[in-house]
Amino acid sequence: MTGWLCVGRLEDLPAPGAFLKAPLTRAGVVVVRDDGDTLRAFHAVCPHRGYAFVEVDEGRAQGGRLTCKYHGYAFGLDGSPCGPSGPLSPVRLAVAHGFVFVTLDADAPALDEALGEVPPWLVALGARAGRLRRARRVAYDVAARWSLLLENFQESLHFATVHPALEALTPSSLAETWMPGAGEAGPWLGGRMPLVASAETVSLSAARNGRPFVVPDDERRVVHDAMRFPNLLTSLQPDYLLTFTLFPAGEGRTHVVACTYVDEAAPEEALADVLDFWSRVYEEDRVACERQELGLISPGAQPPAWSPVEEGAAAVRGMSEPRPRAPGGDRFAGIFGQPYLDLSPHLDTSSFPELHREITRGLAEAELRYTGGTLKWMGVCAPWVIDEASWPDAMHVIRTMSREDFEDFLALGDLDPDDLAAIDSDPASRAQYTFGDETDRPFSRAQELFLEMRGGAYFPWKACVHLLENEGWDDKHSGEGKAFTEEARRLFPKTVAFVESLPLVEIGRVVLFGLLPNDHAPMHRDSEPGKSLTVAQSISFEPARAVDARAKGFTLATPDGFREVAVEAPIYWFNDMDWHGVKAAPFFRYSIRVDGVYDPAFLDAVRRSFTRGRPRGR
Predict the structure, then answer these.
(1) Distance in angstroms (rounded) separating the CA atoms of residues 583 and 41
(2) pTM for this structure?
(3) At the topology level of CATH, where does 117-297+306-322 sit?
(4) Of 358, 538, 376, whose CA–CA distance to 465 is shortest?
(5) pLDDT digits over 115-158, tens only?
(6) CA distance between the termini of the chain
(7) Cβ(588)–Cβ(516) under 8 Å?
């Protein structure tokens, strides 16, 4: 495990002298509250002769000192020596929302930068730090790799068979997955599970029995779970908090520290109701994970077949089995050595507020279409996207439909009667037919809705408008015989005028790509590096950037997927040989892409300015 790792909460270190030890190294890392009420972390290694001097995993420093039992050398709670040796070796520590993190990486970014988007319920709980108390801490080992514990935590499909008592109080059928607003898997993932009407909380009695609430009024009927990759699991109940910190303990083995926190006013006699319930659940999960570990290391093990409700577990698998780095895989194809070019120094964007008003008004009347539903089938998605089970591809849905559903789908299309009559609806014959974007059988609007509603297909762009349409991908830069649509000139006249003013000698395609709230566009690329000799010439622009903060969230990724760059420009040129996509956000976003051929003088001016280091893309 690398990066910032959780080692506990503030309530574990309530007063000066309190310490805990985290097994992040063979000797461990000790975290202590010093006499000035500051938390500090040190390698638990005596600088005198290298003795691993902390022999218990938590406690109170005797006499306000940490003492090595080999030669009796002592150290203050700030790590300073009390004798002839040097000081203890420090470890970086930071606190966020009541959780204590450390990192062994001296070059790791600050925790605020690396923490990620924290689930809102944990942010709210963080304000209560200091008003909770720890009711129990238990440590145990599980004979399974740590990633299996994360996967097990991230899905409730196993509740009915493994945890019937949990299923009775928080039915898995009501569970919902939570992801950050950016729509990316990790470092935080979570979920919410409503309580059944007869339960106040999760416990043996399903009652609070005098334990005060630790959540706001509107959260008292819900259980919130959250994981921060790679080692923190949390479960926030109406009246208590559970945390689990995981530490690899050798091949196929994980050390778990499980803690329960309650309001400081919770009566002691009311705790067994909760603690006994969860002791049973811990044991049930331990057995389940250990049996999975046995299966995975046995002959006959196969890759997982994720069901749609296991999207959280599938996301964890993607994070815990990182993609291999290919040679050169950390470089963008880019343009003139930049991931993308910000064209705003070269093009006048002063009309963007006016364009934004026109576009958002025109979209209310335009004939909107879906697109992007067959990206997986087309083979243009990034490798780490292809296996995502959370959103089915439209062509895959079509090929697995029942005969009756397929016939309904065909009846909703705009096919020529002869073509329609020639299609065999038998499932075994269906692989020969293609439908959708860039095929001879484009989806009708009714088919798009049917695929989404009946088959669960995912279309990223649900507000797509072709202002100037191309026949296929190969003619997107040719303007021969093309004209802006009547609808474009009627609803978006100023936008059309702006596009016509761009420094392009030919315009072959103009598309408005809009994403509805919480939709995302998966990482994909339009052509493979090395297969095309030239960079496609295009201009994309986002008028909304001039009006409010609703940036589209357009992002580029390197071939190995390890490095991403957010496009932070109102008008830009990117290389569509690079992986590109759009992060999810809780509001509508759009951009307009114009494909064509640059005016040679403009292209030369852009090339010279970027290669001489004046305006720089990010």
Answers:
(1) 36
(2) 0.59
(3) Naphthalene 1,2-dioxygenase Alpha Subunit; Chain A, domain 1 (3.90.380)
(4) 358
(5) 989 999 999 998 887 789 999 999 999 999 999 999 999 999 99
(6) 30
(7) yes
